[in-house]
Amino acid sequence: MDLDLLTRVHLFPVRHHSPRTTAVLGRWLERVKPEVVLIEGPCDASALVDVLCDADTRPPIALLGYRTDDTPGSALWPFAEYSPEYAALRWAQAHSARALFIDIPAGVSLAMDRRDAAPPLESEGQETSSVPDEEEPVSERFARERGYRSFEELWEALFEAPDWTPEGFRDVLLAWADVLNAGPRQDAHRWRDAFMARQVLEVLASGVAPEKVAVVAGAAHVAAFIAKDVEATLEARLPAAVPCAVTVIPYSFPRLSEQLGYGAGNRAPHFYQKAHEAKCDFRRATLEVLIDFAGHLRMRGFTASLSDVLEAYRLAVTLSDLREKSAPGLDELREATIATLCRGDATHVDSFLWKSVVGHQVGRVASRIGKNSLQAEFWREVDSRQLPRTDSPETFTLRLSNEVEVGSSVFLHRLRVTGIPYATLAGTAQQKATPKEAGAQAALTRVRESWQAQWTPSTDVALVEKIILGDSLEAVTTHVLQEQLLAARTTGGAAEVLLESVITGCSQTLAAALRACDAHASTDADLPSLASAARALSGLVAYGTSRAHTAMGDEAVAVLCQKTFSRALLRVNEACACSPEAVPAVMDALRTLHEVALAQPLADKAGWLAAAKDLMHGTTVHPSASGLATGLLYLSQELTEEEVAKEVGLRLSLAVEPEVSASWLEGFLRVNALVLVKNRDVVKALDEFLVGIDPELFRQTLPVLRRALGVLGHTERRYLMENIVAVRRLGEQGRAVKTVLEEKDKEKLKDMSAELGKALDDLDDLL
Fold first, then answer.
1. Which among 604, 519, 594 is positioned nearest to 565, based on CA atoms?
2. pTM metric for this prediction
């Protein structure tokens, strides 16, 4: 490798997403007038230069490399309008120069261990030497020692704001790279040095004169070229490229701001965009942002006048002068805003103002690049259904009473099932719904859905990656559901897939899921699984009319619902003779079967009631199951108050072990505690049970009792205390207070108060 020849080309170091670097680079290119511009970026993306520079392409955009070998994996190389790499591409196009990317191919980047390799387009003008995670980065320590709060503040003050000449900026950036790279560099960077050096030399070998070639790359790479610190043999250590393809996708300002993880120097993309448009006049950019801030404040009802804006601007300039900066940066902008426009309150800046300096802009890619079928379908659905397409969250509601909004729901649920990030379903109190709440039975019973949608570059990344599973969203969803069905080992698991097939309109999976449910149910001994399947099938029978029906017909679902419920009843007694660890799942299953029996006419209600009565009287089943069955029968009016009081008395009698009685009570109160504590006979039996427990046994039983009575809320406790007062006739003693006072027998009053207080304190401690 002729390193002397390498140093004869025009080399310019850059920091990514930097308006000042871009401005200086433009003047430098005008001076050297190269015929070939070589740019850091995946070399297999050179064919996309025309698309990147197309008039219809509008940054922010990104190169996307994605694997095509059925293995998930992708990498992004983002560009803003003020990214120096993008500016170099545009300059080359405007001056009829040839532009090529020279960094390692996307397939090699995807194959590299990400723990050792730097992320794409890493800013090597910052930190590139390897340091333990717990050590402070050299860049941050350098900034702190010079009185700056962060490296980003230092960069703005010393690099962005001053009006550099191309030669001066080039020298200072190379000097900065030398300081930071004084220690050993990461192996991956040195491998890339060797690869890019060879790419440059191959261009020279093709007959292009060195003085006609310009290289635009990260400062660390350029510093290595100038110092001839490049070992050609290191290129052999690069891993073999994995099969992949490269395309161009839209990107966004919020995503650029998140690139700080590899030193993009881009805390506020919109602010830097304004600085770029103002030709790096940061004072003008500061004033424009302050005017925007005032507008945002006025829209929210706050007072923000033009005089406030001017005062804030003067304060920002004054702060920058005091700190010996050439112009205000983001820190001065923030502090001046808080002190003037926000009257000293930072809440507004943190809650909504700062989002405007980050920006919400989403890029656009020229149509000539084309979209794969999933991308095309996604954007077609988003536009036709008028769904959000911005990189900021928007909330909307679908009413599932017409075909259009049901279709929108099907589309969004397909994205959810396939893992394409775009929309999330809101649960209770507008919180994000859990996966269980978002789909399956919960989705089937809803008549309206609240969604929060937000396009991000990850959306397009996923749409590109998922193309290996099918050429339509329905096909991809079907593929995912079929894999889930193959992995399902229980009736409940197959039923979940069945419900998701209905919710996502995947008719191809419906028949297979029904057959799988039938096959599993015949051998399934797991009661929770069978109960879950019975609920799912019952839901399809009851609510399936708002979604697409199975090609096998609704009759097939109804028959399977009856068979599954009947099979579940056969497993009840055996399942309830279980270990304490299995009790919660079994009790949930019993409640599910009870709900299905009462709500679904196809279910064997009589069979369930008979099974519940067997549980109520059973002595071999877990006491909690017996208690739950008793409570369920009482609430469904299959037991009278006298019968349930008698059963409570028997189960909580002194002849039964206290721990067994406490477990029975736990299941009994799990049904509907309010109804039960309103029954005075039930409360009397409970009171007698608690009072009659031996103190030593009471301490042993206390954990179970606390768990059993822990379900009681404030209302239930109030009714319980009222009934205890009535059962113990404490109210009658209270009414004797007047007589006691008339007799002036204060000692008797004291004794009565103590007795009543002790009774209530004991109950409160237990609860």
1. 604
2. 0.67
